Amino acid sequence: MLTISTTNEPATDLGFLLHKHPDRVQEFEQSFGVARVLYPEADEKRCTAALLLEVDPIQLARSRGRTTPDYALGQYVNDRPYAASSLLAVALAQVFRTARSGRCDNLPVLAATPIPLTITLPALPCRGGPELARRLFEPMGWTVDAQPIALDPTFPEWGDSRYVRLTIEGTVRLADALNHLYVLLPVLDDAKHYWVASDEVDKLIRAGEGWLADHPAKSLITRRFLRHRSELTRSALERLAEIGDDVDQTFDPPVEEEPEHDEAQVTVPLNTLRRKAVVRTLEEVGAQTVIDLGCGSGQLVAALLDNPMFTKVTGVDVSTRALSLAARRLHLDRLPDRRRERLDLFQSSLTYTDDRFGDYDAAVLMEVIEHVDPPRLNALERVVFGAARPGHVIVTTPNCEYNIRYEGLVGMRHTDHRFEWDRSEFRSWATQIADRYGYTVRFQPVGDDDPEVGPPTQMAVFAQGGSSE
Fold first, then answer.
1. Chain mean position to CA 160
2. Where is the Methyltransferase type domain (predicted)?
């Protein structure tokens, strides 16, 4: 069982967000039992929705195979009917499918707005204990209360079980909260009741959009969600690094209870290589004032502030949420005065002329253009190269030829990408821009330059005047 409560008035709007009416008990057949949604309380001040999963042990045994985590005796004696697990995560995903997508035609603004939520799971397997629960939920803004459950209160000397009673509270968008649970329930349990195939990578990327790439325990989460399948884990981490420059993508060391799953090879992630390549190029061209157009959560901005060569650093994004993340990453509220004087953050669209874009030595569009609808690219080009006209412009974008190196990837690297270019398409676009606006352009690879398909990221460096390479 899990319960979701809110005090956002009128609290009964929770029914609209979940697409489940508070006045009815609704049943949903699962391959392993029945899921029911009901509302123990529902008034203007407070509303609680409960998802109860009744697991049928016979159906569960019939649906399991020898590749499931605890075959043999486990199909007769197990905790699945009594504790939250991947069974509950699957039921949640199916029952609240529309809510997870963030769509609510009746209340679209509320669906996009963080609201106060309290979520309780009375019995949650947690391999790693209360500390792991806090480690996984707190980075997303949750306040976590994880109370260990004793093996037997009558015999305290036996110690605690691996189960916790978990309550999380926070002001979070409901769709995000549901996706947090969908991913983290099987991660905490460190088991899944079904075979994990390559399509699980896509499920993880979709459910983790907007938070997983920025999570400090992303490697642990990815490894456990994918049942420690190294090839799928590496593919997922590579794709998370492609989402943007939101995080330092590294392999976290495994927690103590799973040393056998340690990764033998630690690689430098692509987004780290990309960020370093951009900073190095800015140093080479002698830029002192830099504007990051589409700064996301501000990791490039932070790297530029760490280098005293850059006397003015500006981050711009159309998303106010991204700017809030950037402000939090940069510790804007307690930034030293001298560092704060070099920094500016503001919200703006890159397809509309903005005088604040002007008077910079260099502008950076790092993994940005592929998020722009092709018909709007001309507007972005006019704004950046025609109106702002910085001395240098650095553009990076995925090389779609390299996509075949990502196991399990179907389509583009991210659901928000409007296109992905191969090397010839990117060179053609960049050369035309340079000719049209009086720039020269040179190209360089970022990441491993595969002799067959090229690098994973391609970079163009534009400069006013001179000759193109």
1. 33
2. 291-384
- Reported as a single tens digit per residue, the pLDDT across 121-172 is 999 999 888 999 999 999 998 999 999 998 888 888 888 888 999 999 999 9
Q: Is residue 275 part of a domain?
A: yes
Angular region, 87: left φ>0, alpha ψ -120 to 50, beta rest: alpha
Contact by Cβ (8 Å): 360, 314: yes
Question: Which amino acid is located at 387 in the chain?
Answer: A
- The CA-to-CA distance between both ends of the chain, in Å, stands at 62
CA angle 432, 433, 436 (to 5 degrees): 85
The C-alpha atoms of residue 137 and residue 135 are separated, in whole angstroms, by: 6
What's the pLDDT at 264? 37
Q: Which domain holds residue 142?
A: 2-195
Residues in Cβ contact with 157 at an 8 Å cutoff, skipping those fewer than 6 apart = none
Please check whether residues 289 and 148 belong to one and the same domain: no
pTM: 0.57
Q: Which residues, 6+ apart, have CB-to-CB distance to 72 below 8 Å?
A: none
Q: Among the residues of 74-168, which ranges form H helices?
A: 86-95, 97-100, 108-111, 129-137
The two structure tokens encoding residue 459: 């970079």
32 within domain boundaries = yes
Residue 219 · residue 237 · CB < 8 Å: yes
Please give the backbone phi and psi of residue 4, each rounded to the nearest 5 degrees, phi first: -125, 120
